[in-house]
């Protein structure tokens, strides 16, 4: 086997030794160095893999769910896949791919927001495969819409799938794992939007914040059964869901005053929207489903047995982007007074188009982009940080 490369570990005992052995197992040639008598050695990769049990992945007909299902099969699990009735043909293809890799697989149609269907889903998987060791509650949906225009029905639909569906998957998977008495892994689909609020994604953010809280609470309840509960929280991933949001109409604010707010849909091509997401990525690109599957693979493994209650972020964006009309200054902001110690120093002034946001330790900078011909343009804004714990001042900059 060709090594992945060479790794240097600067400790030969304890945790350092364990890391060196693991990297060797992952395919690296490993150089180990320590003091006071420097020495180095190559740790060779052991071989062999055993069957790991059964995993169930919901929302597995396409995108991230499909990638996770295939990865867990590659890791040695038999994998049951689930999706809606409209995705039956796609599910069959995933099952065929998994079986071609030498692992067992079965397709199960169910709506995760329906308690009876989720209970039957888990029961059927157990009857088919003999047990359940990993539950990946991946199914979800997102709608890009102004809070003011969101209907109660749209709110209920998003919460039913993203929050209620995750709760039901956690509940019935946990019941089965407790009954089996051999522990297990429960894994949910959170999001960066479950840690930071984003404009036009109010219902989605609320549903993912719920997943994060559920994950933390469930982890504390189920730890005594050797069941870990974690979630993966992707940023902008090049996926079907992101493309769906991209095809939505981007809301532009048209504001005459803070008391009078109306919204207007303005078309934006998927290419421009995706390019905007790349610009606020620390790595300058979108994430991939393969990168999400790698995180889930680790969470599902025995190596993660001391990790629980976490919603692990993949690529936190540097800023939130809002598109505003070209002829206007940034359209809207929450204006709140700062303590005297936080105000601009004497003699300093803020440009006419600048905004000040409320203090928060959890919000991201907001980029307001003037977009006469679509986004992105050269007319971006300059961000002036006042304190690490504050959202920065935002200043219009026509250059």
TrEMBL record:
Superkingdom, taxonomy of origin: Eukaryota
Ranges in coiled-coil conformation: none
GO biological process: fatty acid biosynthetic process
Pfam families named in the record: adh_short (PF00106)
InterPro entries tied to this protein: NAD(P)-bd_dom_sf, Sc_DH/Rdtase_CS, SDR_fam
GO molecular function: oxidoreductase activity, acting on the CH-OH group of donors, NAD or NADP as acceptor; quinone binding
Alphabetized UniProt keyword annotations: NADP
Sequence similarity: Belongs to the short-chain dehydrogenases/reductases (SDR) family.
This protein's name: NAD(P)-binding protein
């Amino acid at each position: 086997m060709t090594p992945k490369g060479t790794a240097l570990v600067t400790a030969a005992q304890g945790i350092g030794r364990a890391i060196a052995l693991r990297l060797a197992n992952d395919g690296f040639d490993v150089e180990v160095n320590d003091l006071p008598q420097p020495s180095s050695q190559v740790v060779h990769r052991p071989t062999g893999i055993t069957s790991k049990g059964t995993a169930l992945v919901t929302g597995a007909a396409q995108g991230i769910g499909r990638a996770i299902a295939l990865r867990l099969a590659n890791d040695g699990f038999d994998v049951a896949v689930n999706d809606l009735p409209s995705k039956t043909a796609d599910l069959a293809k995933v099952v065929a791919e998994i079986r071609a890799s030498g692992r067992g697989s079965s397709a199960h149609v169910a709506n995760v927001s329906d308690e009876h269907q989720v209970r039957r889903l888990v029961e059927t998987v157990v009857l088919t495969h003999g047990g359940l060791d990993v539950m990946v509650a991946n199914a979800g949906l997102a709608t890009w819409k102004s809070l003011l225009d969101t209907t109660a029905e749209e709110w209920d639909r998003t919460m039913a799938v993203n929050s209620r569906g995750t709760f039901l998957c956690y509940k019935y998977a946990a019941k089965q794992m407790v009954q089996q008495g051999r522990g297990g892994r429960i894994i949910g689909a959170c999001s960066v939007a479950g840690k930071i609020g984003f404009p036009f994604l109010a219902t989605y953010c609320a549903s993912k914040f719920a997943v994060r809280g559920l994950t933390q609470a469930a982890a504390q309840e189920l730890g005594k059964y050797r069941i870990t509960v974690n979630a993966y929280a992707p940023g902008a991933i090049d996926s079907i869901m992101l493309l769906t949001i991209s095809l939505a109409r981007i809301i532009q604010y048209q504001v005459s005053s803070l008391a009078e707010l109306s919204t207007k849909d303005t078309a934006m091509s998927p290419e421009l929207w995706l390019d905007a997401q790349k610009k606020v990525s620390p790595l300058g690109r979108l994430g991939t489903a393969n990168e999400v599957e790698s995180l889930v693979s680790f969470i599902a493994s025995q190596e993660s047995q001391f990790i629980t209650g976490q919603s692990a972020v993949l690529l936190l964006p540097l800023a939130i982007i809002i598109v505003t009309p070209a002829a206007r200054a940034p359209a809207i902001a929450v204006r709140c007074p700062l303590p005297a110690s936080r105000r601009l120093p004497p003699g300093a002034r803020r440009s006419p188009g600048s905004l000040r946001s409320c203090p928060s330790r959890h919000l991201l900078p907001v980029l307001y982009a003037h977009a006469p011909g679509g986004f992105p343009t050269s007319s971006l804004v300059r961000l002036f940080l006042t304190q690490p714990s504050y959202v920065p001042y935002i200043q219009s900059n026509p250059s």
